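for the record, two folds in this file. i put them one after another cuz i was lazy. first one right below, seq on top, structure tokens after. the second one comes after a little note so u can tell where it starts
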Amino acid sequence: MQNNWHQLLQFDQQHIWHPYAKSPSATPAIGVQKTKGSIITLANNQELVDGMSSWWACIHGYNHPTIQQAMHEQIEQMPHIMFGGLTHQPAIELAKRLIKLTPSGLDKVFFSDSGSVAVEVAIKMALQYWISLKKPQKKQLLMVKNGYHGDTFATMAICDPDNGMHAIFNNPLIQHHFASAPQMGFDLASDDRDINDFKALLSQHHQSIAAVVIEPIVQGAGGMRFYRPDYLAQINQLCQSYNVLLIVDEIATGFGRTGKLFACEWADITPDILCLGKALTGGNLTLAATLATSKISEAISQGNPGLLMHGPTFMANPLACATAIASIDLLLASPWKQNIQQIERHLKQALLPLNGLTGIKEARVLGAIGVIELDRADLGETIQAQAVQQGVWLRPFGSLIYTMPAYNIPQLQLQQLTDGMITAVKAALSD
């Protein structure tokens, strides 16, 4: 089997393009043969504690029997059917749950197949809303810097334009407006200079702005930054005052990651449009959803052409919808709040003492998110390799070494995770 894996990894290295990687790659990807709970078993039989929950999606860990059973049952009955002109029970039941769980007023659900597309759909909804109201001049968007919303072209255009992963595409991308990033600090007593900058831009350009797009409370891949709920509440109020739609991107934060079921609950707001993905199916299949208010759907339906102009081929895939139902029901039946609080306490106890050490800019924690931000941005590969030696899987980017474990990770594995993370960081900084 090892010889076979050697050949497989050679082929992979030469022919398969991995995310944010060269092809052919200078170093081979690490082969994985199986998963269980929060454990990844590599091709060489080494076991790693997963600190990433597969890019934040596998909130129940891997291979959960409840979700697997639901998937088996659905695949035997109907794995897929087109959603154009047809419907099915898994989509209906999932929509019911999403409408019930998300902030009141979000009662229209559009299914798609990835987080980037969910945000694309939200942008399209906002633009078509104003076109339908005969205000086509409202076609630009307003974001805050350090944001990240996806890898497709419309979403790249609303990521951080200077320091984001897609800055090289700035020339061909549509140009939008960016306010300064919110000040960092979930518990910050702010002087509101950041919201004043946002307000000034909105005041100047609101006649041409269709919507504000923002990640609530946690700016994810744009910097793993946590900001105060009051900032988001003020954003919501300004959007209402200036007649601009508010799109909240909960792809990374939805389904409990910050300690609330949805991060916008920290600010007690209902956006006009809300985007979900990642943890929607517990990380088992790709599925996303864009929820909107009746105000949005009625305007689009009464305008010209009267249809929301979007329709993915695999929209509302029954297998994915059944998987999402099982994941949501499993989450709600679990002590998820207590689990998040327990993870948060452990991460704070383990990581916050790193503050003040040479080479570390800041260690910070919110909910089941732990971040070590370094002064340097060139140690990610070294730290990842060191972490694997410690039996831990991390995926650093830039100066950010972070973890978002599964909510049900056993305490001993969580301890191994943070011990390995800290050891890897200290080893890299000491070289």
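(here's the note) second protein begins now
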Amino acid sequence: MDLGFETIGNACLIFHDGGPVLATDPWLFGSAYFGSWILSHEVPEEQQAHVRNCRYLWISHGHPDHLSLPSLDTLRDKEILLPDHVGARVANDLRGLGFQVRVLQDGVWTQLSPRLRVASIANYNQDAVLIVDLDGHLIIDANDAGDRGARHFLMRELPRFQKQTFLACLLGYGDADMINFFDEQGRRIPPRAMQHLPVGPQVAEVLHAYGIKNYLPSSSQHRYQRTDSLWTNDCATPEHEYTNGFRSDQARCLPAFLAYDLLRDDYRCIRPKSNEGKVAKPEEFGDDWNEPLRDGDAASLRSYFGRFEHLKGRFGHVTFRVAGKDCVIDISSGIDRGVTFEVPRNSLMSAVEWSAFDDLLIGNFMRTTLHGDWWGKQSTDALYPHFTPFVTKFGDNGNARTKDELRGYFADYLRRGFTSFDLGPSDFDMREALRDYL
């Protein structure tokens, strides 16, 4: 392909300008989230070769379905381009592992080849959007970043693109987050993703809102393989569901796996082999549900959660049920609001050691039970905005845990001019949660 792109894998796009130049979020093989996730389909050798022939890689954020270290280890000759995340954790970690890294300034075009330039926009949720100009064609790789202010740049630039426009972003039933909730009687609370609401109307609404002509399914081409997370496959979005209910006379919903030739303005479908039916036991990834906590583990858990100042005064306790025994981490006295996480010891202590608690949440083998009043929210929404973002996004990945660190963190993002909290109810909730830091 002389000029165009391919979509293959969970959030991997491969851009061609006289040959492969840039690949994004190359998860090419292996598992993620303590073995819970695998790719929904194998990445064919042709596309793997195209990634190997790229000069550049762009990594949106640190989740292991986007930053796959086993895949990156086979691509060490590439220059890795990164968004300018406050805290620079991904950049520092990759440099420490010997990778060549370049951080892209927010909203500044960078030329990568004669007809290919990119602009990266980092957001306060430690994710990012990549804007790609491929000879006047616009491809927006929003993966699972959402729009937290990137539209300010997009709306400024969009009128300049008179050719085809494409948006790759996460839409679907909604499995790519913690949805493994139980009530206090031990009964699973069915997540909204189990309703299998048609995805097509979501796709049309987003395309029409931004004036984009084509949708590319992204960040949802995965499935669950652990015996303790297999249940979540009922919440994953099948590829054919993106067109279910899609209606538009001005936009298209394209297949999940394709090679798009921009000179011909046409595409061919890529038909990768499905990974459906693969099953693995938790023990294959070091998780034995009967293994108890060891000496020193409770102290490590208390030290870890004691660093997040936002939790104090809002939560009474965080409890870990490991091998049937509870380890209670007291946060604040006089507050009955708390949470119990039932989880295997190995993945729990690894997540704490690596400051990667989000990997436990997203893996959906950890069982979560809420106690007390969570601001009147439904259980499957209640970890936002006061728990998950402050622990996993701002804390683990942004290195902002104290009140002063959080103020500096958000001041930096606001200074750049690409941050907004006015797109919907969840943004309003976040602004309210951040009122002490903005």
